Amino acid sequence: MSETPFSFVKDLLIDGVNVLKLPPDKRHKIAVALILFSSLSMACMMVLLKLGAERLSLWQIITFKSLLPMLVLLAIFWVKQIKILPHGYYGLYLLRVILAVAAVVCWIYSITYLPLGIATVISFTKGIFVLWLATVFLSERLTAIKIITTVVGCIGSFIIMDISKGGPLIASLVGLAGALFAALLSIIIKKLAASEPTVRLMFYPQAGMTLFFFIPAALNWQPMDGTAIVLASGIGLFGLISQWCFISAYRLTDVSALAPIEYSRLIFAVLTGALIFSEIPSHFDIIGMLLIVGSSYVAFRFGPRVL
After folding, report:
1. C-alpha to C-alpha distance for 57 and 216, rounded to whole angstroms
2. Which pLDDT belongs to residue 174?
3. What is the average per-residue pLDDT within 201-227?
4. pLDDT mean across residues, the chain
5. CA nearest 68: which of 224, 196, 203?
6. Count of structural domains, the chain
7. 124: Cα within 13 Å, side-chain hemisphere
8. Helix (H, G, I), strand (E, B) or coil at 115
9. Domain, as residue range, for 263
10. Domain for residue 38, yes or no?
11. What CA–CA distance (Å, rounded) separates 134 from 55?
12. 142 touches 86 (CB < 8 A)
């Protein structure tokens, strides 16, 4: 019996076993398509986050970003009769939740107060952080490439931050902190993804964020009209799609093969920022972006094979 598109999506979402049996070249093409769709979904979510910040509190945004995916994933657990509890790794799952909460808070804050393109390119410094985390936690040796990559990335970050502007500087620093948390998260995800299904990897951070931010959201609740409800629902939906595509793509092929494709996020972010919010990067912004993208690519190219 031929495989239907639905069965393909089901296999990739639940366990990925059948999909992993495809030829390497076909898996690579599917992974590239998933990364591109993840980047597009991420750009859509960033637009809705920025629009939602005008109507909702930060805590409401984070709660709704995680609530809808959590409910959808719970339904998948129930329909497919998948065990919700992980097979061990409880400490890693707890750390994953903590780091995910920290990374998401920093990321949303930077999106709210920075142009979409700049907020996105700052998140690419994750690759540089991964290099140094590998030195600390994986006992990898210090190399000239690590030092040069870090220096170039720092120069690009300083150019983008524009220390003459207090607000963007703080938001940029928060964005860098989010990139550090995301780098730590990448190492944990790579460890868990070897044996845990995608649906479970996605569920626990969403559940943790929903529970953690529900009370602050209730205490800082802003009245929601129809537009706010649509924005909040869209944030959760596009966030779910983007994360699913991202994790599924990295099941199918090597990180080094997908690293260049990830920079499509910057293209989508700059385009949507320019078209919707009239955020046109300056010459200095473009120089900073190129330095960060270049150093981040080198970090992925010569760094450890983690997400």
Report:
1. 9
2. 93
3. 89
4. 80
5. 203
6. 1
7. 37
8. coil
9. 44-302
10. no
11. 41
12. no
Q: CB atoms < 10 A from the CB of 44, how many?
A: 19
**pLDDT at position 6:** 44
Look at residue 15 and tell me if it is in a domain: no
The neighbour count for residue 26, using CB atoms within 10 Å, is 11
Distance CA 4, CA 10 (A): 10
Residue 251, pLDDT above cutoff 80: no
Residue range 102-111: average pLDDT?
Answer: 91
- Enter the pTM of the model: 0.77
Return the residue matching tokens 């920290």.
Answer: 102
- CA–CA separation, 83 vs 297, rounded Å? 38
Please check whether residue 17 lies inside any domain of the structure.
no
Residues written for the chain: 307
Question: What whole-number distance in Å separates Cα of residue 144 and Cα of residue 148?
Answer: 6
Asked if residue 104 lies in contact with residue 242, where contact means CB atoms within 8 angstroms, the answer is: no
Does 117 reside within a domain?
A: yes
Average pLDDT of the segment spanning 87-115: 89
> Which sign does the torsion angle of CA 274, 52, 237, 206 carry?
positive
C-alpha triplet 27, 28, 29: angle, nearest 5°: 95
